[in-house]
Design brief:
By secondary structure, the chain is α/β, with parallel strands linked by helices. Helices cover about 35% and strands about 20% of the residues. It contains 5 helices and 7 strands. The protein has helices at about 1-20, 80-95, 110-125, 140-145, 175-185; strands at about 35, 50-55, 70-75, 100-105, 130-135, 150-155, 160-165. About 30% of the residues are buried.
């Protein structure tokens, strides 16, 4: 009888894990939703904002109806290319926000020291787009899986589906990214 209980328990646990597991963020699929604490609400001009999710910009109930493209980048304070990407994303945000571009960054630092470095990078780069805190990496695992290079960048359509995925960093990434942003924002 104990062996049968163990088998039943194993099957129930496996089924519940499989049922609760969501797909990773994949091109042409709905991006996993999330809501995370905000690092820089005051810099965004919303000092009372504590939590933010992609539902602000995507989906049928989006608060921001002017969104035409959302860029979500995953970063960490220990990632050199992520540090280079942050001011570039701020420049894109400033240049194209009136045309419907929305930028979000998700920092995956777990330790207080890393979180403090992220806050310093935000201040140093005068970042006014939302930077969110994924301290327990729950959102990162849902979007990236267990192993993915940083930075990893996703472009989302207003309906919440993933348009493009870029994993890792290359020297021509900024030129490619701006071309893709311009193409997505082009009038139809």
């Amino acid at each position: 009888m104990p062996a049968l209980r163990l088998i039943v328990l194993t099957v129930v646990c496996a089924a519940s894990l499989a049922f609760g597991q969501e797909e990773l963020a994949t091109v042409d699929k709905a991006a996993p939703t999330f809501r995370l604490p905000v690092y820089n609400a005051a810099a965004m001009g919303e000092p009372k904002l504590t939590m933010l999710g992609i539902d602000r910009y995507t989906g049928t109930d989006a608060q921001d109806k002017k969104t035409r493209l959302v860029v979500v980048s995953f970063m960490a304070s220990f990632c050199g290319p992520c540090k280079k990407e942050m001011p570039y994303l701020q420049a894109l945000h400033e240049k194209y926000r009136d045309q419907g571009l929305r930028v979000m960054m998700v920092a995956i630092d777990r330790e207080e020291e890393g979180q403090q470095k992220v806050a310093e990078l935000i201040s140093l780069n005068k970042v006014t787009f939302p930077v969110l805190k994924d301290r327990f990496n729950i959102v990162a695992r849902r979007w990236l899986g267990t192993q993915s290079p940083l930075p990893s960048l996703f472009m989302l359509r207003p309906d919440g589906t993933v348009k493009t995925v870029h994993r890792g960093y290359s020297e021509d990434a900024s030129a490619l990214l701006e071309k893709e942003v311009l193409a997505a924002l082009a009038p139809r």
